[in-house]
Amino acid sequence: MKLDVVAFYRFVALDDLPSLRDRLLSLCREHGLRGTILIASEGVNGTVAGPDAATAVLIETLDEICGVRLGEVKHSRAQAWPFARMKVRIRPEIITMRASEADPTRQVGTYVAPKDWNALVADPDVLLIDTRNRYETKVGTFEGARDPGIDSFTEFKAYVERELDPAENPKVAMFCTGGIRCEKASSYMLAKGFEEVYHLKGGILQYLEEIDADTSRWQGECYVFDDRVAVGHGLAPGSWTACFACGEPLSEADLASTDFEPGVSCPRCVGDLTEDKARDLRARHAQLTSLDRRRVG
Protein backbone atom coordinates (compact mmCIF):
# COMPACT_ATOMS: atom_id res chain seq x y z
CA MET A 1 0.00 0.00 0.00
CA LYS A 2 1.31 3.45 -0.94
CA LEU A 3 -0.34 6.37 0.79
CA ASP A 4 -0.01 10.12 0.38
CA VAL A 5 0.71 11.90 3.67
CA VAL A 6 -0.14 15.58 3.31
CA ALA A 7 0.83 18.14 5.97
CA PHE A 8 -0.60 21.62 5.68
CA TYR A 9 -1.29 24.86 7.52
CA ARG A 10 -2.23 28.44 6.91
CA PHE A 11 -2.73 31.36 9.26
CA VAL A 12 -5.94 33.05 8.06
CA ALA A 13 -9.09 34.35 9.74
CA LEU A 14 -11.84 31.72 9.91
CA ASP A 15 -15.37 31.87 11.28
CA ASP A 16 -18.32 29.51 11.87
CA LEU A 17 -15.91 26.84 13.07
CA PRO A 18 -18.55 24.21 14.02
CA SER A 19 -19.93 24.18 10.47
CA LEU A 20 -16.43 24.02 9.02
CA ARG A 21 -15.53 21.12 11.32
CA ASP A 22 -18.60 19.16 10.26
CA ARG A 23 -17.92 19.81 6.58
CA LEU A 24 -14.30 18.70 6.75
CA LEU A 25 -15.01 15.61 8.85
CA SER A 26 -17.76 14.50 6.48
CA LEU A 27 -15.52 15.00 3.45
CA CYS A 28 -12.58 13.13 5.00
CA ARG A 29 -14.71 10.18 6.06
CA GLU A 30 -16.40 10.04 2.64
CA HIS A 31 -12.98 9.73 0.97
CA GLY A 32 -11.45 7.32 3.51
CA LEU A 33 -8.87 9.71 4.92
CA ARG A 34 -7.18 9.39 8.31
CA GLY A 35 -5.34 11.96 10.39
CA THR A 36 -5.96 15.12 12.36
CA ILE A 37 -7.07 18.60 11.32
CA LEU A 38 -7.10 21.50 13.80
CA ILE A 39 -9.12 24.62 13.07
CA ALA A 40 -9.21 27.90 14.97
CA SER A 41 -10.16 31.50 14.35
CA GLU A 42 -6.51 32.03 13.31
CA GLY A 43 -6.37 29.29 10.66
CA VAL A 44 -6.00 25.58 9.86
CA ASN A 45 -3.30 23.00 10.60
CA GLY A 46 -3.30 19.28 9.85
CA THR A 47 -1.67 16.09 8.67
CA VAL A 48 -3.83 13.58 6.80
CA ALA A 49 -3.10 10.33 4.95
CA GLY A 50 -4.93 8.48 2.21
CA PRO A 51 -4.93 7.67 -1.51
CA ASP A 52 -3.62 10.42 -3.78
CA ALA A 53 -7.05 11.18 -5.25
CA ALA A 54 -8.58 11.55 -1.79
CA THR A 55 -5.93 13.93 -0.40
CA ALA A 56 -6.21 15.95 -3.63
CA VAL A 57 -9.94 16.48 -2.96
CA LEU A 58 -9.19 17.63 0.59
CA ILE A 59 -6.52 20.14 -0.45
CA GLU A 60 -8.71 21.49 -3.25
CA THR A 61 -11.56 21.98 -0.76
CA LEU A 62 -9.27 23.68 1.79
CA ASP A 63 -7.91 25.91 -0.94
CA GLU A 64 -11.45 27.02 -1.77
CA ILE A 65 -12.24 27.63 1.90
CA CYS A 66 -9.06 29.31 3.15
CA GLY A 67 -6.46 29.40 0.36
CA VAL A 68 -4.35 26.72 2.02
CA ARG A 69 -1.91 26.64 -0.89
CA LEU A 70 -0.91 30.20 0.04
CA GLY A 71 0.38 28.68 3.29
CA GLU A 72 2.23 25.37 3.33
CA VAL A 73 1.24 22.06 1.74
CA LYS A 74 3.77 19.21 1.79
CA HIS A 75 3.45 15.64 0.58
CA SER A 76 5.35 12.51 1.61
CA ARG A 77 4.76 8.77 1.23
CA ALA A 78 3.89 5.98 3.65
CA GLN A 79 3.70 2.22 3.11
CA ALA A 80 1.13 1.72 5.86
CA TRP A 81 -1.47 3.88 7.59
CA PRO A 82 0.35 6.35 9.86
CA PHE A 83 -2.92 7.26 11.61
CA ALA A 84 -5.66 5.11 13.10
CA ARG A 85 -8.67 7.37 12.52
CA MET A 86 -9.87 10.77 11.33
CA LYS A 87 -10.29 13.73 13.69
CA VAL A 88 -11.24 17.36 13.09
CA ARG A 89 -10.94 19.48 16.24
CA ILE A 90 -11.72 23.10 17.10
CA ARG A 91 -8.94 24.74 19.13
CA PRO A 92 -8.21 28.25 20.49
CA GLU A 93 -4.99 28.22 18.42
CA ILE A 94 -3.74 25.99 15.61
CA ILE A 95 -0.34 25.99 17.32
CA THR A 96 -0.51 26.76 21.03
CA MET A 97 1.72 29.56 22.28
CA ARG A 98 -0.64 31.63 24.47
CA ALA A 99 0.95 34.94 23.45
CA SER A 100 -1.42 37.54 22.06
CA GLU A 101 1.48 39.56 20.64
CA ALA A 102 2.38 36.62 18.37
CA ASP A 103 0.07 37.25 15.43
CA PRO A 104 1.29 35.74 12.13
CA THR A 105 -1.63 37.35 10.28
CA ARG A 106 -0.04 40.73 11.12
CA GLN A 107 3.74 40.14 11.00
CA VAL A 108 6.20 37.28 10.60
CA GLY A 109 9.91 36.95 10.04
CA THR A 110 11.67 36.66 6.69
CA TYR A 111 11.14 33.35 4.92
CA VAL A 112 14.31 31.60 3.74
CA ALA A 113 14.10 28.93 1.03
CA PRO A 114 15.91 25.64 1.70
CA LYS A 115 18.40 26.39 -1.11
CA ASP A 116 19.45 29.59 0.69
CA TRP A 117 19.43 28.21 4.23
CA ASN A 118 23.00 26.88 4.40
CA ALA A 119 24.51 30.23 3.45
CA LEU A 120 22.40 32.09 6.01
CA VAL A 121 23.21 29.85 8.98
CA ALA A 122 26.92 29.75 8.08
CA ASP A 123 27.04 33.48 8.95
CA PRO A 124 28.74 33.72 12.39
CA ASP A 125 26.53 36.70 13.27
CA VAL A 126 23.38 34.59 12.96
CA LEU A 127 22.06 32.84 16.07
CA LEU A 128 20.44 29.57 14.96
CA ILE A 129 17.59 28.33 17.19
CA ASP A 130 15.66 25.05 17.11
CA THR A 131 12.11 25.93 18.23
CA ARG A 132 11.04 22.31 18.79
CA ASN A 133 10.65 20.28 21.97
CA ARG A 134 13.49 18.30 23.53
CA TYR A 135 12.10 14.90 22.48
CA GLU A 136 12.25 16.14 18.86
CA THR A 137 15.74 17.63 19.04
CA LYS A 138 16.91 14.29 20.46
CA VAL A 139 16.28 12.70 17.05
CA GLY A 140 18.16 15.30 15.00
CA THR A 141 18.88 19.00 14.45
CA PHE A 142 20.93 21.40 12.36
CA GLU A 143 24.65 21.69 12.90
CA GLY A 144 25.38 24.50 15.36
CA ALA A 145 21.75 25.03 16.42
CA ARG A 146 20.89 26.10 19.94
CA ASP A 147 18.42 23.80 21.70
CA PRO A 148 16.12 25.72 24.10
CA GLY A 149 15.47 22.50 26.08
CA ILE A 150 11.71 22.98 26.19
CA ASP A 151 8.99 20.39 26.76
CA SER A 152 6.23 22.37 25.02
CA PHE A 153 6.09 25.27 22.59
CA THR A 154 4.45 27.50 25.22
CA GLU A 155 7.80 27.43 27.08
CA PHE A 156 9.55 29.13 24.16
CA LYS A 157 8.40 32.55 25.41
CA ALA A 158 10.17 32.06 28.74
CA TYR A 159 13.31 30.87 26.94
CA VAL A 160 13.41 34.05 24.84
CA GLU A 161 12.86 36.27 27.88
CA ARG A 162 15.49 34.43 29.92
CA GLU A 163 18.22 33.68 27.40
CA LEU A 164 18.01 36.11 24.48
CA ASP A 165 18.52 39.86 24.15
CA PRO A 166 17.63 41.90 21.04
CA ALA A 167 20.71 44.07 21.62
CA GLU A 168 23.06 41.06 21.73
CA ASN A 169 21.22 38.80 19.26
CA PRO A 170 19.75 41.11 16.61
CA LYS A 171 20.03 38.48 13.86
CA VAL A 172 18.19 35.21 14.53
CA ALA A 173 17.31 32.23 12.32
CA MET A 174 14.81 29.60 13.44
CA PHE A 175 13.44 26.31 12.21
CA CYS A 176 10.84 23.69 13.11
CA THR A 177 9.32 20.57 11.54
CA GLY A 178 6.99 22.09 8.96
CA GLY A 179 7.30 25.83 9.52
CA ILE A 180 4.20 26.56 11.58
CA ARG A 181 5.86 27.03 14.97
CA CYS A 182 8.38 29.43 13.41
CA GLU A 183 5.55 31.55 12.05
CA LYS A 184 4.45 32.25 15.61
CA ALA A 185 7.93 32.30 17.11
CA SER A 186 9.15 34.85 14.56
CA SER A 187 6.07 37.01 15.11
CA TYR A 188 6.67 36.88 18.86
CA MET A 189 10.34 37.82 18.57
CA LEU A 190 9.64 40.72 16.25
CA ALA A 191 7.12 41.98 18.80
CA LYS A 192 9.87 41.74 21.44
CA GLY A 193 12.24 43.97 19.51
CA PHE A 194 14.50 41.55 17.58
CA GLU A 195 15.53 43.33 14.38
CA GLU A 196 16.21 40.52 11.89
CA VAL A 197 14.29 37.27 12.30
CA TYR A 198 14.54 34.55 9.66
CA HIS A 199 12.79 31.19 9.44
CA LEU A 200 13.12 28.16 7.19
CA LYS A 201 10.27 28.10 4.68
CA GLY A 202 8.55 24.73 4.71
CA GLY A 203 10.55 23.69 7.75
CA ILE A 204 12.89 20.76 8.15
CA LEU A 205 10.70 18.53 6.01
CA GLN A 206 11.04 20.72 2.94
CA TYR A 207 14.77 21.09 3.54
CA LEU A 208 15.22 17.30 3.73
CA GLU A 209 13.15 16.89 0.59
CA GLU A 210 15.06 19.45 -1.48
CA ILE A 211 18.66 19.40 -0.20
CA ASP A 212 21.00 16.53 -1.01
CA ALA A 213 22.53 14.68 1.91
CA ASP A 214 26.09 15.45 0.77
CA THR A 215 25.53 19.23 1.03
CA SER A 216 23.13 19.15 3.98
CA ARG A 217 23.81 20.72 7.38
CA TRP A 218 21.16 18.49 8.98
CA GLN A 219 22.40 15.94 11.51
CA GLY A 220 20.34 12.85 12.36
CA GLU A 221 16.69 12.38 11.43
CA CYS A 222 13.54 14.48 11.82
CA TYR A 223 10.86 13.50 14.31
CA VAL A 224 7.35 13.43 12.82
CA PHE A 225 4.02 13.19 14.60
CA ASP A 226 2.76 9.90 13.22
CA ASP A 227 3.60 6.21 13.24
CA ARG A 228 6.69 6.72 11.07
CA VAL A 229 8.33 8.40 14.11
CA ALA A 230 11.16 9.90 12.03
CA VAL A 231 12.22 10.59 8.45
CA GLY A 232 15.56 11.30 6.79
CA HIS A 233 16.76 12.96 3.59
CA GLY A 234 14.32 12.55 0.76
CA LEU A 235 11.71 12.00 3.51
CA ALA A 236 12.64 8.32 3.60
CA PRO A 237 11.42 6.45 6.72
CA GLY A 238 13.90 6.74 9.56
CA SER A 239 15.38 4.31 12.07
CA TRP A 240 13.63 5.44 15.27
CA THR A 241 10.68 3.81 17.00
CA ALA A 242 8.44 5.15 19.76
CA CYS A 243 7.59 4.00 23.27
CA PHE A 244 4.02 2.71 23.39
CA ALA A 245 3.56 3.96 26.96
CA CYS A 246 4.80 7.57 26.68
CA GLY A 247 5.51 8.22 22.99
CA GLU A 248 9.21 9.03 23.52
CA PRO A 249 11.31 8.43 20.37
CA LEU A 250 13.64 5.51 20.98
CA SER A 251 17.11 4.97 19.51
CA GLU A 252 18.88 1.61 19.22
CA ALA A 253 20.61 2.39 22.53
CA ASP A 254 17.23 3.01 24.19
CA LEU A 255 15.92 -0.29 22.84
CA ALA A 256 18.96 -2.09 24.30
CA SER A 257 18.40 -0.56 27.76
CA THR A 258 17.19 -2.76 30.61
CA ASP A 259 14.54 -0.08 31.22
CA PHE A 260 12.92 -0.84 27.87
CA GLU A 261 10.07 -3.34 27.81
CA PRO A 262 8.08 -3.54 24.54
CA GLY A 263 4.69 -1.93 24.98
CA VAL A 264 5.35 -1.11 28.64
CA SER A 265 8.27 1.24 29.37
CA CYS A 266 11.42 2.99 28.18
CA PRO A 267 14.30 4.81 29.92
CA ARG A 268 12.24 8.01 30.00
CA CYS A 269 9.04 6.69 31.61
CA VAL A 270 10.14 3.64 33.61
CA GLY A 271 10.43 5.75 36.76
CA ASP A 272 6.73 6.62 36.55
CA LEU A 273 5.61 3.04 36.04
CA THR A 274 3.36 1.59 38.76
CA GLU A 275 2.54 -2.10 39.13
CA ASP A 276 -1.07 -1.51 38.07
CA LYS A 277 -0.05 0.51 35.03
CA ALA A 278 2.57 -2.08 34.03
CA ARG A 279 -0.01 -4.87 34.30
CA ASP A 280 -2.50 -2.97 32.13
CA LEU A 281 0.14 -2.11 29.51
CA ARG A 282 1.37 -5.72 29.32
CA ALA A 283 -2.18 -6.93 28.80
CA ARG A 284 -2.75 -4.32 26.10
CA HIS A 285 0.54 -5.16 24.37
CA ALA A 286 -0.29 -8.88 24.40
CA GLN A 287 -3.70 -8.16 22.90
CA LEU A 288 -2.26 -6.02 20.09
CA THR A 289 0.48 -8.56 19.37
CA SER A 290 -2.13 -11.30 19.10
CA LEU A 291 -4.20 -9.19 16.66
CA ASP A 292 -1.14 -8.51 14.51
CA ARG A 293 -0.33 -12.23 14.34
CA ARG A 294 -3.88 -12.99 13.21
CA ARG A 295 -3.67 -10.38 10.45
CA VAL A 296 -0.37 -11.84 9.21
CA GLY A 297 -1.75 -15.37 9.38
**CATH topological fold name of the largest domain:** Oxidized Rhodanese, domain 1
Structural class: alpha/beta
What percentage of residues falls in helices of 4 or more residues? Answer: 25-40%
Number of helices: 9
Strand content: 15-25%
At the first level of CATH, what is the class of the largest domain? Alpha Beta
SSE topology string: EHEEHEEEHEHEHEHEHEEEEEHH
Structure description:
The chain has 297 residues and is of the alpha/beta class. Strand 14 (241-242) and strand 15 form a beta hairpin. The protein is 32% helix and 23% strand. The chain is globular, with a radius of gyration of 20 Å. The protein is built from 9 helices and 15 strands. The chain has helices at 17-30, 52-66, 114-121, 134-137, 156-163, 180-191, 203-210, 252-256, 275-296; strands spanning 3-11, 34-40, 43-50, 72-78, 86-90, 110-112, 127-130, 140-142, 171-175, 196-200, 218-220, 222-223, 230-231, 241-242, 249-250. It folds into 3 domains: 3-90, Alpha-Beta Plaits (2-Layer Sandwich); 110-220, 3-Layer(aba) Sandwich (Oxidized Rhodanese, domain 1), CATH 3.40.250.10; 252-296, no CATH class. The strands form 5 sheets. It has a 5-stranded mixed beta sheet, covered by helices on one side. A 4-stranded parallel beta sheet has the order 6-10-9-7.
